[in-house]
């Protein structure tokens, strides 16, 4: 690595900032103490030679997997060495060790162990928990099959109880029933929690979870009756051995069914669980976390693109003058700054979701499930909303870096391929949006039948008081002040209410055409997704605006307020159709909004670099030559390229094999 | 054995797939000859792409070089001609996964920029592959803005040579294809200095590697720029020059020359070259941009007809995901887009052929229009196809994320097209500049090219549509598109004027309007695309149901555009809020109609399974079987697991601390 003084452009940018980035970093972390501790944990990793390795971009898939396994093994030990036990701190340590990448033990730590804790009987915990904690057992969670993802009731794997031997016989009866995708399954795990349709006494009792040993302890060879392997190369996730698992009459003892809730007695009698609501808590938790992941992916991409745009000079704005920084072009600002504002919005929403989950799960433990439906709907919708936006945003940042963004040295391709599966896993986004829509429609109907609804959907209460038009309802008139965040939140609220009502009415109209409920739902689903999207957008602007008053430092509050305004106004500009069609804004106002967006771009331009510095990503974590803190981009691109595998020898062997003979022959 | 779920889709086709294929190819005879070429290539194991998803960068590169070398042999064996249709079919079927592509650009630039003597000297050497060429223009610090290049060529009259240098790190040549490992020569662009005076950027032929042992020439540092998102098979290179001397004769001198005494002379017109450069942008659209979208649609739509998930109705079999309205809304507009762009490419080709004839007759009047069209359409087509491929990728859920689906590679490759041959935003602003000029001309009553005469249309009042069916009438939606394009262009022009009149410098005024100008340029291209689709459909024979289904696709393309840009259309006032409800209703109805022909419509693109190279998209629909078989071939399953012995075993047995 070439060490040099800071690039002059970046130095100038930082000197001109109107606020102290450190203070904003504290806001993002939730206090100065947390910033300190986060850095302390990162330093443990950065200063540990065991966690150093060659640039992953130059490694083959096998090598990347090997590096990840190496680091994961060390990580588990070092966590214990350093006495890090708090879940948030474990999460931080892990993400620094793996630099934001997934790792092969994710499913062991994130699904296998927690599932044992929540669904195993005390006897099962005795048998499995300590060996798993000590990594003698490495487990994964095998749910998804080749033919079934989102619709888990459709899973085909069977577990048939044999009372004669008191065993379950596990089978993958079809090609589509082969377990497919579970992380860590292909090569790393020796056990799996397998979800299968339970058959006992000739009856199917639905999906249940079983602990299945898959590889021989000691030799790691697959057990007889088990076919297991890696599903092959993917877009990203090179470090993970996503696997397949096929079972042929594979027997496990009765005691390997997770029986804290449902049970099968030795004679095959099935005992039903009391409630199954608790099991989807994990899902809600992971979806809530994805909002924060979206914020992080987008923040990293913005950091890289904005620093690089401050360093890169190109073309001329004014004839005869030096080439300007590309960050001075309005089109570049228009690409990047709304995304920067979005990254901040998602940070705050992500924190809100995490806190809300904690609060509600405490209630759940007390037996109060009343807020679960809303949290479930909110986590599904926001998971989809934020991951879609961040996914597109990361790509936009990469494109804004031109050709160099396409090189792996920019780090942007890697952020994208690592992040994009978020749109699919833990619930495919469209399916998620439709779940939120179901909750919105249900709430709307409740209001229609005279009940009041609470929480984020309480705006629906106001709709009932309006005279209901058979067609084309105009939204509640709002007098929108385009420089007032609170007033803009009202505009978003009106839009959400209008779209929910429109979808509900269309659904009703289809039902009136004597369509079945399911057909009516299907032919309204485009409207329903639109309604969910608007609802989530409203939640985001509401939470972002609410955050402003919590920022004590005036200079910091001022820049974040500009970002918040940009986020909201840009959103209006992009979705002007809804606001115009609903009659919330006039043409003149839309024009003013467009104009104001451009003014805000120029204002945010001053602080753009300081605003990404505030995310406080280390160069190590960022993994980008273009996004380096010191801005010495070109020198380091050259250094990086020299390490490329194609440069290992000065003359590539294909010259002797093909080029030279061709030249000789022709 | 075709999956019954796909077979049933094909039985229901409302039109003849074979006739549509022929129509897309430009006649049944061409379909026949294309298939013959594809067969010849695909039956030759050298060209097999079977294992490409498992290969490393080094292996991909080596395979691509091997293919390039064998292809020369094949072309001779088969008696194909270098510029004939067969070679185009070959390139299409190899999906560009071949080395030495830049060799052709090297030759073209010598032909375009070289003197007759230079052509006579270098072209035969290149034709016989005595030398392998590249094209070194882009530098680390400069891409789009050519005048900013920093490599220098200083004339030394004592030795009659140019001395080439890379004066600083940002001046290093960066990105040229085939340069990292393969090329022996390159055309390098550098600032020419004679007796201390700079004459701007000029091209020089430069040898970079020994013709004996392929080692870099003295003063030359050359290598590969490292892994990228795709193009692993291409050795994009860097090049650093330290006092490298080339003879005076190596400056390409069709238009200018440095004489022995250092006198710089310039002659002739570059307009013909300008035309050629412009047409390159159009020529990449078919194979590099529209074709990947067609492939992605084929994969995603076939898979969606095979994949069943969840139940639409209780008690029934799980539904094909293609039956979900949300899935239709993702995929079918992309399918309509693929067809729309297939037809716009034909329109552009005709425009350029006419332009070429004009230019041959020394009439250069159409150049600005051609330039504006090539820029605008390169940008809009590449942008929309890229986003279309990504939508297809994500519409395939988890399996789309597997490389074996073929979709990630299609995506990572097509996205490069948004940057090469001109970054899209910059291109759109060039189109906008042309449109603003034309608008000013129209306002002043001056003539403009036929493609933009619509700018003088009298502003209509309100859209007359009263029923959702009215929006299936092309006059209705074309008027809306026309109206919007005019409004965006005229309001940008007005704003620009306003800034300038209020004393803002012209360059600053331009920068302040660029967001809107970019939008105006897109609206123009969108309008022309819809209009051309409508005109194409009108000209089709109503044979075997083809015109009817194309009309549906055209309507869908048009209404999807309105549905997705509602704000712009409402703002114009031509359409009202109530109209938008009608547009939406008509749009959603069309999805259900086109759904029925979705599989036949992608079958008509006529890709072989080998060309698609996708476990999800093959013709027989045996998706899961293939996915499983391919995964088992993965090196991760064929080779041992070195990580087990080294790390997992000690971990499992708790001995790691002893390591």
TrEMBL record, chain A:
**EC assignment:** 1.3.3.6
Q: Name one GO biological process term.
A: fatty acid beta-oxidation using acyl-CoA oxidase
Q: Does the keyword Lipid metabolism apply?
A: yes
Reaction catalyzed: decanoyl-CoA + O2 = (2E)-decenoyl-CoA + H2O2; a 2,3-saturated acyl-CoA + O2 = a (2E)-enoyl-CoA + H2O2; octadecanoyl-CoA + O2 = (2E)-octadecenoyl-CoA + H2O2; octanoyl-CoA + O2 = (2E)-octenoyl-CoA + H2O2
Q: Where is the Acyl-CoA oxidase C-terminal domain?
A: 485-662
Please tell me which top-level EC class this enzyme sits in.
oxidoreductase
Query: What pathway is it annotated to?
Result: Lipid metabolism; peroxisomal fatty acid beta-oxidation
Q: What is its main location?
A: other
Which residues are the active-site ones?
Answer: 426 (proton acceptor)
Family stated for the protein in its record: Belongs to the acyl-CoA oxidase family.
Recorded protein name is Peroxisomal acyl-coenzyme A oxidase 1
Source taxon at top rank: Eukaryota
Q: Where in the cell does this protein reside?
A: Peroxisome
- Fetch the InterPro entries from UniProt: ACO, ACOX_C_alpha1, Acyl-CoA_ox_N, Acyl-CoA_Oxase/DH_mid-dom, Acyl-CoA_Oxase/DH_mid-dom_sf, Acyl-CoA_oxidase, Acyl-CoA_oxidase_C, AcylCo_DH-like_C
Residues forming the Acyl-CoA oxidase/dehydrogenase middle domain are 141-249
Question: Encoded by which gene?
Answer: Acox1
What taxonomic lineage is listed for the species of origin?
Answer: Eukaryota, Metazoa, Chordata, Craniata, Vertebrata
At which positions is FAD bound? 144, 183
SUPFAM superfamilies assigned to the protein according to its UniProt record, in alphabetical order: Acyl-CoA dehydrogenase C-terminal domain-like, Acyl-CoA dehydrogenase NM domain-like
UniProt keyword annotations, A-Z: FAD, Fatty acid metabolism, Flavoprotein, Lipid metabolism, Oxidoreductase, Peroxisome, Phosphoprotein
Which cofactors does the annotated protein need, by name?
A: FAD
Residues covered by the Acyl-CoA oxidase C-alpha1 domain: 280-441
Where is the Acyl-coenzyme A oxidase N-terminal domain positioned along the sequence? 21-138
Automatic annotation (TrEMBL), chain B:
Please name the gene that encodes this protein: Acox2
This chain belongs to the protein called ACOX2 oxidase
**Record's GO cellular component, any one?**
peroxisome
GO molecular function annotation: 3alpha,7alpha,12alpha-trihydroxy-5beta-cholestanoyl-CoA 24-hydroxylase activity; acyl-CoA oxidase activity; FAD binding; fatty acid binding
Annotated residues for binding of FAD: 138, 177
Domain (Acyl-CoA oxidase C-alpha1) spans: 274-436
Tell me the organism. Answer: Nothocercus julius
PANTHER family for this protein: ELECTRON TRANSPORT OXIDOREDUCTASE, PEROXISOMAL ACYL-COENZYME A OXIDASE 2
Q: Which residues form the active site?
A: 421 (proton acceptor)
Q: Which Gene3D superfamilies match?
A: Acyl-CoA dehydrogenase/oxidase, N-terminal domain, Butyryl-CoA Dehydrogenase, subunit A, domain 2, Butyryl-CoA Dehydrogenase, subunit A, domain 3
The protein's matches in InterPro entries, at most eight in alphabetical order, are given as: ACOX_C_alpha1, Acyl-CoA_ox_N, Acyl-CoA_Oxase/DH_mid-dom_sf, Acyl-CoA_oxidase, Acyl-CoA_oxidase_C, AcylCo_DH-like_C, AcylCoA_DH/ox_N_sf, AcylCoA_DH/oxidase_NM_dom_sf
Indicate the family of this protein. Answer: Belongs to the acyl-CoA oxidase family.
């Amino acid at each position: 690595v070439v060490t040099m003084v800071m690039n002059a452009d970046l130095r100038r940018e930082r000197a001109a900032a109107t606020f102290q980035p450190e203070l904003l970093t504290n806001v993002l972390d939730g206090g100065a103490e947390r910033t300190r501790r986060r850095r302390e944990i990162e330093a443990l990793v950065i200063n540990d030679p065991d966690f150093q390795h060659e640039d992953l971009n130059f490694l083959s898939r096998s090598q990347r997997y090997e590096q990840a396994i190496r680091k994961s093994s060390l990580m588990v030990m070092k966590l214990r060495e350093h006495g890090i036990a708090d879940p948030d701190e474990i999460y931080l340590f892990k993400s620094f060790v793996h630099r934001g990448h997934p790792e092969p033990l994710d499913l062991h730590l994130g699904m296998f162990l927690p599932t044992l804790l929540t669904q195993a009987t005390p006897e099962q915990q005795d048998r499995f928990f300590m060996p798993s904690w000590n990594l003698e057992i490495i487990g994964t969670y095998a749910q998804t099959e080749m033919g079934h993802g989102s619709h888990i009731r459709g899973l085909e794997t069977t577990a048939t109880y044999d009372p004669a031997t008191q065993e379950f016989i596990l089978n993958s009866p079809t090609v589509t029933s082969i377990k497919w995708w579970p992380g860590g399954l292909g090569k790393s795990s020796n056990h799996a929690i397998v979800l299968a349709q339970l058959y006992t006494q000739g009856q199917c009792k639905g999906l249940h979870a079983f602990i299945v040993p898959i590889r021989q302890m000691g030799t790691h060879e697959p057990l007889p009756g088990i076919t297991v392997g890696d599903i092959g190369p993917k877009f990203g996730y090179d470090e993970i051995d996503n696997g397949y698992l096929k079972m042929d009459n594979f027997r496990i003892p009765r005691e390997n069914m997770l029986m804290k809730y449902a049970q099968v007695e030795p004679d095959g009698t099935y005992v039903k669980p009391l409630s199954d609501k608790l099991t989807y808590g994990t899902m809600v938790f992971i979806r809530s976390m994805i909002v924060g992941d979206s914020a992080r992916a987008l923040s990293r991409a913005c950091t890289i693109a904005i620093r690089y745009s401050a360093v890169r000079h190109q073309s001329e704005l004014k004839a005869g003058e030096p080439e300007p920084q590309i960050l001075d072009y309005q089109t570049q600002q228009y690409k990047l700054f709304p995304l920067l504002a979005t990254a901040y919005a998602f940070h705050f929403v992500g924190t809100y979701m995490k806190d809300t989950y904690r609060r509600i799960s405490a209630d759940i433990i007390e037996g109060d499930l009343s807020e679960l439906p809303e949290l479930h709907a909110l986590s599904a919708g926001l998971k989809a909303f934020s991951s879609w936006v961040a996914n597109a945003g990361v790509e936009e940042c990469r494109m804004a870096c031109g050709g160099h963004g396409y090189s792996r040295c920019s780090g942007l391709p890697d952020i994208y391929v690592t992040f994009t599966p978020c749109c699919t896993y833990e619930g495919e986004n469209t399916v998620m949006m439709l779940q939120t829509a179901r909750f919105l429609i249900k709430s709307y109907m409740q209001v229609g039948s005279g009940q009041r609804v609470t929480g984020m959907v309480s705006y629906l209460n106001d709709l009932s008081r309006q005279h209901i038009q058979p067609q084309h309802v105009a939204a509640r008139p709002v007098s929108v002040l385009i420089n007032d965040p609170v007033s803009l939140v009202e505009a978003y609220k009106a839009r959400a209410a209008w779209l929910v009502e429109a979808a509900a009415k269309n659904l009703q109209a289809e039902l009136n055409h004597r369509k079945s409920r399911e057909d009516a739902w299907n032919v309204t689903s485009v409207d329903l997704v639109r309604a969910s999207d608007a609802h989530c957008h409203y939640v985001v602007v509401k939470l972002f605006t609410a955050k402003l008053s919590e920022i004590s430092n005036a200079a910091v509050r001022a820049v974040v307020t500009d970002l918040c305004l940009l986020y909201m106004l840009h959103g209006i500009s992009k979705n002007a159709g809804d606001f115009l069609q609903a009659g919330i804004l006039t043409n003149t106002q839309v024009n003013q909004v467009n104009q104001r967006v451009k003014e805000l771009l120029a204002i945010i331009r001053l602080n753009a670099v300081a605003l990404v510095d505030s995310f406080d990503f280390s160069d190590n974590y960022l993994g980008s030559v273009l996004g380096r803190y010191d801005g010495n981009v070109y020198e380091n691109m050259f250094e990086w390229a020299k390490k490329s595998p194609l440069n290992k020898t000065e003359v590539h062997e294909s010259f002797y094999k093909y080029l030279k003979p061709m030249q000789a022959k022709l | 054995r075709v999956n019954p779920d796909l077979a049933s889709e094909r039985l229901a086709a409302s039109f003849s797939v074979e006739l549509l294929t022929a129509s897309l190819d430009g006649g049944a005879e061409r379909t026949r000859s294309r298939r013959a070429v594809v067969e010849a290539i695909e039956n030759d194991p050298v060209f097999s792409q079977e294992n490409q998803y498992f290969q490393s960068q080094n292996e991909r590169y080596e395979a691509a070089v091997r293919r390039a070398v064998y292809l020369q042999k094949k072309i001779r064996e088969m008696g194909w001609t270098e510029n004939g249709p067969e070679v185009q079919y070959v390139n299409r079927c190899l999906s560009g996964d071949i080395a030495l592509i830049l060799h052709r650009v090297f030759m073209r630039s010598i032909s375009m920029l070289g003197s007759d003597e230079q052509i006579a000297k270098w072209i035969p050497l290149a034709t016989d592959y005595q030398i392998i060429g590249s094209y070194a223009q882009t530098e680390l610090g400069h891409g789009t803005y050519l005048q900013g290049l920093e490599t220098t060529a200083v004339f030394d009259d004592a030795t009659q040579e140019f001395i080439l240098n890379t004066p600083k790190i940002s001046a290093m040549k960066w990105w040229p294809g085939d340069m990292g490992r393969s090329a022996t020569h390159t055309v390098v662009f550098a600032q020419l200095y004679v007796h201390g005076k700079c004459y701007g950027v000029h091209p020089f032929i430069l040898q970079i590697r020994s013709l004996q042992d392929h080692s870099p020439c003295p003063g030359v540092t050359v290598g590969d720029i490292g892994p990228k998102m795709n193009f692993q098979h291409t050795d994009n290179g860097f090049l650093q020059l330290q006092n490298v001397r080339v003879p005076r004769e190596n400056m390409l001198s069709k238009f200018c020359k440095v004489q022995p005494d250092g006198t710089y002379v310039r002659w002739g017109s570059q307009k013909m070259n300008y035309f050629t450069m412009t047409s390159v942008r159009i020529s990449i659209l078919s194979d590099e941009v529209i074709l990947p979208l067609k492939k992605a649609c084929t994969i995603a739509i076939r898979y969606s007809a095979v994949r069943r998930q969840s139940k639409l109705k209780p008690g029934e079999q799980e539904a094909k995901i293609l039956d979900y309205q949300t899935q239709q809304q993702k995929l079918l507009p992309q399918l309509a887009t693929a067809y729309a762009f297939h037809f716009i490419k034909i329109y552009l080709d005709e425009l350029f052929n006419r332009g070429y004839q004009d230019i041959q007759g020394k009439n250069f009047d159409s150049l600005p229009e051609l330039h504006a069209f090539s820029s605008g359409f390169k940008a809009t087509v590449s942008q929309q196809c890229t986003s279309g491929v990504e939508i297809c990728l994500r519409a395939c859920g988890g399996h789309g994320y597997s490389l074996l689906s073929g979709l990630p590679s299609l995506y990572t490759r097509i996205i490069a097209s948004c940057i090469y041959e001109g970054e899209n935003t910059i291109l759109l602003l060039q189109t906008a500049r042309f449109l603003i000029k034309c608008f000013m001309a129209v306002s002043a009553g001056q003539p403009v090219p036929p493609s933009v005469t619509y700018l003088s249309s009298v502003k209509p009042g309100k859209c007359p549509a009263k029923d959702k069916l009215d929006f299936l009438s092309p006059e209705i939606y074309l008027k809306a598109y026309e109206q919007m394009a005019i409004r965006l262009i005229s309001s940008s022009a007005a704003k620009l004027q306003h800034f300038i009149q209020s004393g803002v410098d012209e360059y600053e005024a331009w920068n302040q309007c660029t967001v809107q100008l970019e939008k105006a340029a897109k609206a123009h291209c969108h309008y022309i695309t819809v209009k051309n689709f409508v005109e194409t459909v009108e000209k089709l024979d109503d044979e075997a149901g083809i015109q009817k289904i194309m009309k549906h696709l055209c309507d869908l393309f048009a209404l999807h555009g309105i549905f997705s840009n509602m704000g712009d259309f409402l703002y114009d006032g031509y359409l009202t809020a109530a109209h938008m409800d009608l547009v939406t209703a008509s749009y959603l109805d069309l999805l259900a109609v086109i759904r029925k022909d979705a599989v036949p419509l992608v079958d008509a693109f006529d890709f072989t399974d080998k060309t698609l190279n996708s476990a999800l998209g093959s013709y027989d629909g045996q998706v899961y079987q293939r996915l499983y078989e391919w995964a088992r071939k993965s090196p991760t399953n064929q080779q041992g697991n070195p990580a087990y012995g080294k790390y997992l075993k000690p971990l499992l047995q708790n001995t790691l601390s002893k390591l």
